[in-house]
Amino acid sequence: MHPASLIVAALLMLRHPSTRNRITASILLNRAAHDAALSPADREACLNLVDELENDGRPFANSINGASAF
User: Fold this and answer.
1) Contact indicator for 29, 6 with CB cutoff of 8 Å
2) Cβ atoms of 19 and 29 closer than 8 Å
3) Of 5-9, 15-19, 48-52, 63-67, where does mean pLDDT reach its minimum?
4) Are 9 and 19 in contact (CB under 8 A)?
5) Distance of alpha carbon 46 from alpha carbon 51, whole angstroms
6) What ranges in 1-70 are assigned the alpha helix state H?
7) What predicted TM-score, i.e. pTM, was given to this entire model?
8) Neighbour-count burial of 64, counting CB atoms closer than 10 A to its CB (0-12 exposed, 13-18 middle, 19+ buried)
9) In whole angstroms, what is the distance from residue 8 CA to residue 32 CA?
């Protein structure tokens, strides 16, 4: 999948914030960041967003463990 599509999908997830959508957006942005088609600046922006989502006031590891309940 093209990295732009992953980024757009992540942004759509964040329009309706929830733990599940934050996790999904983080995964999508992480995948986009590792695509060779992105420039280094775009890659860094995606990874910065992932960091912000993971540090959004709640331990991200606990969110991932709780994701199996969905």
Assistant:
1) yes
2) no
3) 63-67
4) no
5) 9
6) 3-14, 19-33, 40-54, 60-67
7) 0.74
8) middle
9) 10
Question: 54: closest CA among 16, 19, 13?
Answer: 19
Q: Which two tokens stand for residue 49?
A: 């967003």
Question: Could you identify the residue written with the tokens 């960091």?
Answer: 51
What does the block give as tokens for 11? 């942004």
Cβ count within 10 A of residue 38? 18
Q: Which residue has the tokens 């996790």?
A: 23
* Other beta carbons less than 10 A from residue 49's beta carbon: 20
- Region of 57 (left: φ > 0; alpha: ψ -120 to 50; beta: rest) is left
8-state DSSP, 1: -
Asked if 63 and 22 touch (Cβ cutoff 8 Å), the reply is: yes
